[in-house]
Design brief:
The complex is a heterodimer of chains A (567) and B (203). Chain A has 567 residues and is α/β, with parallel strands linked by helices. Chain A contains 13 helices and 25 strands. In chain A, strands 5-8-2-3-4-1-9 form a 7-stranded mixed beta sheet. A 7-stranded mixed β-barrel of chain A has the order 10-13-12-11-17-14-18. Chain A has a 7-stranded mixed beta sheet with strand order 23-24-20-21-22-19-25. In chain B, the strands form 2 sheets. In chain B, strands 4-3-5 form a 3-stranded antiparallel beta sheet. Chain B has a two-stranded antiparallel sheet with strand order 1-2. In chain B, α1 (40-60) runs antiparallel to α6 (171-187) and α3 (90-119) crosses α6. Classes of the chains: A alpha/beta (567), B mainly alpha (203). The interface between A and B is large, with 31 and 43 residues.
Chain lengths: 567, 203
């Protein structure tokens, strides 16, 4: 500094103060803190942002990228980030960024659906979403495995994983009106619902999954039978009309009911996912087990009007099966139509009878067919009988018909060919027809005509009678009446000659009687007079015998009055 | 000729002209004396780096949550601009875009450029660079616009369920970026530009 011009030397120099210079390096703390803050923010954002999952839906209705939330129990666990179409445009792929706390919703068996307002038979749901907009609902699965791609449900599931209870699998040939959400009843109390109803891979059966809520799930036992309680069960039988339904909801939405086959012995609780058969109705569900079935076929030459598939097959009045098919056939040799009726029968329904018969037969070792053969030999025939005269419904009756013609029977056939007979009703019908045809031959027309002419002549005759005979008869009657009047006047008037003559005669008779009485008194006092005569002449000794002679003689004085008696 | 070349030193507090010596305090007013802003380059570098780091979260994180009825929207600065543009308020969009996105980037870029050229002892376009620095200092305050908007809305729009505005996590780093760039430009000594250029030519 001494190099500088002298004028500068007079300038003061800065003061020296001790000062630590370490603070200068503190400035580097700023970027370090910034980096740390940035890092913390980044890490936090990364941690908060859970995984992103992709869910495919049929439609993106109500979904909005950046706004639509995913909620579990109404707690937000994620947000829709993007909505794109799948490559083939058939689906909507929704990418959802999950929150860290919600990361564990994406389990392998988790299910997702879009919660929208829904109006259904079983009620209204999702009203809140009318205002807040749709959101994606989630049902967290119980699996431990994580997954990133899901197929969303189009409808909210009826049963979620957090519900306590058990699932069961039902198999049926016809799910009727069952669908997810149909109620499940146990003694008419709703205890669960149908979770899914889908066709099996082969398309032949329907598998119905049901969920029974705890604590009712323990009532599902190994002996439980499930049946389809959809619709109304209307039964018209001897006891009258019976309408049966579980609830109004089942009429519309369908439903399933279950009950142990035997209430006294329900058995042990069934395990989760136990498979059951779904019976079509309560009657068949609670019927004793049918055992194995046999097919029989019957050939009817008479019309099978009134017989339908499903019509019962009776054996001695017990329903042991049902008709499975009715096929009209043609026999070219006889040029006749005939009908082959196939039926399925359950020998076990014959109860102890079949056991007894089989037990008998075991010795012969021929089995069921042989049993039938014996019966057929004894006259067992299939015949069509009328179940109801009003509806004309027919059923197949297996009955013993005495004096039926013997037929060949193959006990090993499958189906067994049952010989047939024209049934009672059929016979009756035949007879009625005969009568009708005979009646038909009566010439009613002619009869009618004849009758008509006869009636006509009768009518003219009557007319004649009326106009000609009747006045004559009237006259005749009148004259007869006059005659009678005259007669009555002649006889009954006091001064008629007949009356007077009669009076005289009676008087004379009276006199005669008085003289006879005097005679009798006299004779009583003087019996001798009969022999000696009156006072001067004595009657004779033969008084007894001569009394009568005298008596007859006595009236001799009477002739004096005799002229009076003459009219 | 610069004061440094003459071995002279001016006090910033009282204007006293001093000869350069071992001391560093003004004998008249006691103020700290420095020929150039102390540690200017290092401070500027540190602040610029910190600002660049924080620039990322500032733009990536939402700065504001707006809730209307049941509909919650989160906006980053860029999405806010986008929304304004879509709604037809392109004038506002341009203002916010310039103030909140262009200005911080420009500041950081210019400061980085200046620091690099000093480091390279470059004499390239010294005058223009000096002008750039002045511009950066001038426009620096404008980038606080966004922060003010958020602060204003936050206090004004509070209708509970109907409408609600909340600050997002991005506003803090954004604010930090603005402050750090202001500090960086403050700690930068433009005279170093000329010093560096002079040094380059000396040997």
């Amino acid at each position: 500094m001494s190099d500088h011009p002298g004028g500068m030397d007079s300038l003061p120099t800065p003061e020296i103060r001790r000062r630590s210079r370490w603070s200068l390096s503190l400035i580097w703390l700023v970027p370090v803190i910034a980096a740390a803050a940035g890092l913390i923010l980044a890490v936090r954002t990364y941690l908060e942002a859970g995984p992103t999952i992709t869910i495919s839906f049929e439609t993106g209705e109500g979904l909005e990228a950046g706004k639509t939330e995913m909620r579990y129990k109404n707690v937000v666990v994620g947000t829709v980030k993007r909505i794109v179409l799948s490559e083939d445009h058939s689906k909507v792929l929704v990418k959802v960024a999950l929150e860290q706390e919600g990361a564990d919703v994406a389990m392998a068996d988790s299910r997702f659906w879009v919660e929208r307002p829904r109006f259904g038979l079983s009620g209204v749901s999702g009203i809140g979403t009318l205002i807040s907009g749709a959101y994606i609902g989630v049902d967290i699965g119980s699996s431990k495995e994580k997954k990133r791609n899901f197929t969303g449900l189009e409808k909210p599931p009826g049963v979620t994983h957090d519900m306590k209870g058990r699932r069961f699998v039902l198999h049926t040939a016809d799910s009727s009106s069952l669908a997810a959400g149909s109620p499940l009843y146990f003694r008419r109390i709703a205890v669960g619902e149908v979770v899914a109803s889908e066709l099996d891979a082969d398309g032949k059966d329907v598998t119905v999954q049901v969920f029974v809520d705890a604590p009712y799930d323990r009532f599902v036992t190994k002996n439980t039978h499930f049946w389809n309680a959809s619709g109304i069960d209307v039964a018209l039988n001897a006891s009258g009309l019976k309408v049966n339904t579980q609830s109004l909801a089942t009429v519309i939405a369908g439903g399933v009911a279950f009950q142990p086959l035997d209430d006294t012995d329900p058995g042990a609780s069934a395990d989760e996912n136990t498979e059951f058969h779904l019976y079509p109705d309560k009657g068949s569900a609670l019927a004793p087990p049918d055992g194995e079935s046999r097919r029989i076929t019957m050939r009817f030459t008479q019309p099978v009007r009134g017989l339908s598939v499903g019509a019962p097959v009776d054996f001695e009045g017990i329903t042991i099966g049902s008709v499975t098919s009715i096929l009209l056939n043609y026999d070219p040799t006889t040029q006749n139509f005939y009908t082959d009726v196939q039926a399925e029968i359950f020998p076990d329904r014959m109860g102890p009878a079949v056991k007894e018969m089989l037990a008998q037969d075991k010795k012969g070792g021929k089995g069921f067919g042989e049993m039938w053969r014996v019966s057929v030999e004894r006259g067992l025939r299939a015949e069509l009988s009328s179940a109801s005269l009003i509806t004309g419904q027919m059923y197949v009756g297996l009955d013993f018909i005495p004096h039926s013609k013997p037929v060949q029977f193959d006990p090993d056939g499958d189906p067994l060919v049952m010989p047939t007979a024209s049934g009672g009703m059929q016979q009756l019908q035949q007879q009625l027809q005969d009568i009708v045809s005979k009646l038909d031959q009566v010439p009613f027309d002619e009869l009618g005509r004849n009758l008509n002419s006869t009636l006509k002549s009768a009518s003219s005759l009557l007319h004649e009678l009326d106009t000609e005979v009747a006045p004559e008869a009237k006259k005749t009657l009148k004259s007869a009446e006059q005659a009678l009047d005259a007669l009555s006047a002649g006889v009954t008037s006091p001064d008629s000659p007949l009356q007077q003559n009669l009076g005289h005669t009676l008087k004379g008779l009276d006199n005669a009687a008085a003289s006879l009485r005097a005679l009798a008194n006299y004779l009583e006092q003087h019996p001798e007079s009969l022999l000696r005569g009156k006072s001067n002449q004595e009657p004779g000794a033969n008084s007894g015998t001569d009394a009568g002679a005298n008596a007859t003689v006595a009236p001799t004085p009477v002739p004096a009055a005799a002229p009076e008696n003459k009219p | 000729v610069t004061a440094t070349e003459l071995g002279l030193l001016g006090c910033h507090g009282c204007g006293l002209t001093l000869r350069r010596g071992p001391g560093s305090y003004c004998p008249r007013c006691g103020m700290t004396l420095h020929q150039r802003k102390p540690d200017s380059l290092r401070r500027s570098w540190a602040l610029v780096i910190a600002a660049v780091i924080l620039y990322l979260p500032a733009n990536l994180l939402p700065v504001m949550y707006t809730t209307e009825l049941f509909d919650t929207e989160s906006n980053t600065i860029l999405s806010g601009v986008e929304e304004l543009w879509k709604n037809g308020q392109w004038d506002l969009a341009v203002i916010v875009f310039v103030a909140s996105i262009c200005v911080p980037i420009l500041k950081l870029a210019v400061l980085a450029l200046l620091l690099f050229t000093i480091r390279a002892r470059s004499g390239w376009r010294l005058y223009e660079r000096a002008r750039l620095y002045r511009m950066v200092e001038f426009i620096g305050r404008w980038s606080m616009l966004d922060v003010f908007v958020v602060a204003l809305l936050l206090s004004l729009v509070q209708f509970d369920m109907l409408a609600n505005v909340r600050a997002g996590p991005g506003i803090v780093p954004f604010c930090a970026v603005v402050i750090l760039t202001m500090l960086a430009s403050k700690s930068f000594d433009p005279r170093l530009l000329w010093d560096a250029a002079a040094e380059e030519h000396k040997p």
